[in-house]
Design brief:
The complex is a heterotrimer of chains A (336), B (274) and C (357).
Chain A: H1 25-32, H2 39-56, H3 58-61, H4 93-128, H5 132-146, H6 149-158, H7 165-175, H8 178-192, H9 195-202, H10 207-244, H11 254-263, H12 272-300, H13 302-316, E1 327-328
Helix pairs in contact in A: 2-4, 2-12, 4-5, 4-7, 4-8, 4-10, 4-11, 5-8, 6-7, 8-10, 9-10, 10-11, 10-12, 11-12, 12-13
Chain B: E1 4-15, E2 21-32, E3 36-40, H1 47-54, E4 62-72, E5 78-80, H2 86-92, E6 97-100, H3 114-125, H4 131-144, H5 161-173, E7 179-183, H6 191-208, E8 211-216, H7 219-225, E9 228-233, E10 236-242, H8 243-248, H9 253-260
Parallel strand pairs in B: 3-8, 3-9, 6-7, 7-8
Antiparallel strand pairs in B: 1-2, 1-4, 4-5, 9-10
Helix pairs in contact in B: 3-4, 5-6
Chain C: H1 32-58, H2 62-71, H3 77-87, H4 95-108, E1 113-114, E2 120-121, H5 122-157, H6 166-175, H7 178-192, H8 212-248, H9 252-259, H10 264-302, H11 307-317, H12 320-348
Antiparallel strand pairs in C: 1-2
Helix pairs in contact in C: 1-12, 5-8, 5-10, 6-8, 7-8, 7-10, 8-10, 9-10, 10-11, 10-12, 11-12
Classes of the chains: A mainly alpha (336), B alpha/beta (274), C mainly alpha (357).
Chain lengths: 336, 274, 357
Amino acid sequence: MTTDLRTQPAPAPTTQRVPRPTTTVRTRLGSAFAMFRNRKSITGLVILGFFVLVAAFADVLAPYSPTQVDNTARFQPPSAEHWLGTTHLGEDVLSQVIHGTRGVIVVGFLAAIIATVIAVVIGVIAGYLRGWRSESLSALTNVFLVIPGLPLIIIVASLFDDPPLIVIAAVLGLTGWAWGARVLRAQTMSLRNRDFVQAARANGEPLRRIIGMEMLPNLMALIAASFVGTVTAAILALTTLSYIGVIPVNTYNWGTILNWASAQGAFRQNQWWWFLPPGLCIAAIGVALSLINFGIDEYVNPRLRSAGERARAMKKRGLDVNDAVTAVRTTTKDDA
Amino acid sequence: MRDALLTVRDFSVTYDVDPPVEAVKDVTLELRRGEILGLAGESGCGKTTLAYGLQRLLKAPAVITGGSVVFHDRSGEDVDVARLDAEQMRRFRWDKISMVFQGAMNALNPVAPIGAQLEDVFEVHRPGMSRAERREAAAELLDIVKVGRQRLRSFPHELSGGMRQRVMIAMALALRPQLMVMDEPTTALDVLVQREILRQISQLRHEFGFTVVFITHDLPLLLEISDRIAIMRAGEIVELDTAERIWTNPQDEYTKTLLSSFPRLTGDRGVVVR
Amino acid sequence: MTAVQPQPPVQDGVEVGTTATTAVKGHSRVPWRFLTGRAAFYLFTLWAAITINFFLPRMMKGDAVDQYLSRNRNVSPEAADALRALLGLDTDKSLLQQYVDYWALLLRGDLGVSLLHGLRPVTEVISQALPWTVGLVGFATVVSFAIGTIGGAVVGWRRGSRLDGLIPVTTFLSTIPYFWLGLLAIALFSVNLGWFPIGKAYGVGMTPQWSAEFIGQVIHHGTLPAATIVIASLGGWMLGMRNMMLTVLDEDYVMVAQAKGMPNRRVLWRYAARNAVLPQIQSFALSIGFIVGGTIVMEMVFSYPGVGKLLLDATNAKDYALMQGVFLVITLSVLVANILADVAYAFLDPRTRQTEA
């Protein structure tokens, strides 16, 4: 009963067109921002947005000018006229904090943009190329990782007399790209071997198209996480450098406020209204950025997202996810 | 010593999710001492869930929702597996029933030498043994599976796939269990290595006399090596008979479909031509 | 049909032609190939750091350094020569020649003299300050890493328990800038509660000595800075370890361990945590550079006599030779710490010891 497949007529080819899923710009953007669509990210973005608005509308929001001196009201604790009290010169602390937001936001984001652009260029190229080119870029990245950043910035900043914000941002960006580049290189290297990239290369797609259309969308989450992390690092570095005094104290940011507060002995004299708000603001922005990064983390690695939730959902049903032994739930247990 | 090793009656396992999934439905079978029982079926039929469930190895959200599993120890004692608490279960495991897992690529701890991974079974289950005795027992196990005791201090990444699978078998054999459950032990290996491993299993069985439950989707393989075969589909056992009778006289429609879907070398369609 | 017929046992034990006969090549337990690769990288980084150090003072405005030297006439001729070579004032020599001279000075161990510190050799000034930094930072970092990693392992193991709440708390603490936390600690514990002294490494009037009283003072003074460092950096380690644990717990070998009847404690530490800690060590190596940055600030806040404070004082006083020297020493320390972390990693991860096939 053998049938010779060759003698069977081939079925007539159907010419039905299968509709291709439409990928409009809108759907692409939507999927690109999917990483932000969870509770943690949204909370973080809201807090961050608040600070950005404060920075943008500082002139309108601050009740006084930050440099407005009032000799009659020095070292005053919070009151109705001065919600956060006054400094040693009678300046309004609240206004200073509000105006300080601008420097922090501008430098933070600018430095992160510079660092991320460099990290993407070096990281992705180093990951995609092979051989000595990749190795040498990797060596360059590692050198920048090992050389301690803050001492370098201190020394470089001391070479300038009055660096404008943009120079500070540039220096921070140029010293802070290495971590992101390393992470991106590792991820690009693993993507390079994936099937869809091999297929694109076999198809003869030009390099910039492969990187731009095939790889970058897959790297978006990592790039976003790296960007957010760099903003955090830049803000911390900026405020730290301002506090130390390496960055001249006539630029406004929360670090310089703390510099003055410390110099005037506010910590020793318990003038908490002066030194608590700037620090809390730094922490608040840090928390917001961490939340955004948590959200991205969970998007990238679903294990993280569901691990805690799943365990709690199981607990509601009386099951322990960590149990090494399967639970038994029989309605009747007869003792035979 | 009873003839039956494991009595499974109306055993059911459900995954408690929304909506709940009944992975194993009212399975009843009696495993005879010393036999090789093949467990066959397509992907998702529940054979792995059944095998893991019998040893309560499934993690939440899996729940055993019905039936009983009774292990008849060769000492004469009957153990109701579902009634054991966590600590009793932990002692029961590997001592009475052990398992050989699929794809030993990742089944061995990458940072510990294989000797240590064999020895810790003794450390935990046979606390009376001295360190020298444990080392000797582990070396002996490696000799038995023909990996050689010179590999005691090797790490998993230094061994080939076939050797790793042999180490898994050695590990399962460590406490001389009465039942070994083998979950697709040769699927990830090439055919020549497959043959060696199967030969080895058979040799060991004759030497040590344990019962085997062999899970695979490869029905022709089971026809060669098993005494009895259970065909599973959608969580239920649709046919359970000796290998001979399944080959010559399958009863269930599904069994016939399964048999006919394996191509023959000669070009006839199906292992069994109908 | 019955099972395959068993073969009669082979006499010599190992059948030829089976997977068991791959010869066991002798391989050493030391991962030489891995280490030599890393050594090459470190030498390159060392060279890069020294070269950057070479260019640093030369980036400054020309007259600044001239003014600096002209202000200080008490410098001996040899010291002046050394300073000129270090700081790039020999404009009559070519850059390459300056570079060679610079290397010659370094290899002699001559880093110039510190004008801020009474013309003492820079090497002497730094070697007095270095032990304080290494002691404080080393101790605090190791403690923080240990607590964070162990804590992260436990939190990762007990998924969904109340311990999960530790993660946001410790992460919040790590977003607070070091210096602010330090200042708050001083305000609270030193000024208000008076439990700890405000700054410095030991009491005023004490000279360093190996006495119980001195050591007691060191511990007393060092508690607050160390505790601040630990609390501020705990979050990062804990988060990283917990995330790695969640990934490792899904691996096959963890399930096999549980199937073998291993008690939970053993599975947690010897199977799961032992594997999850490997990327932790790598990220530890990478973050040493950042840790050093935080230390500098810490020393300033607490007036701790380490190299960080040295650097800041030098920067303020424009003592260029000292600045250059401290930067070099800091970079070398980071490099050494990296090497140690790498060596630890190489010994902990057996996969780095690929046989030289």
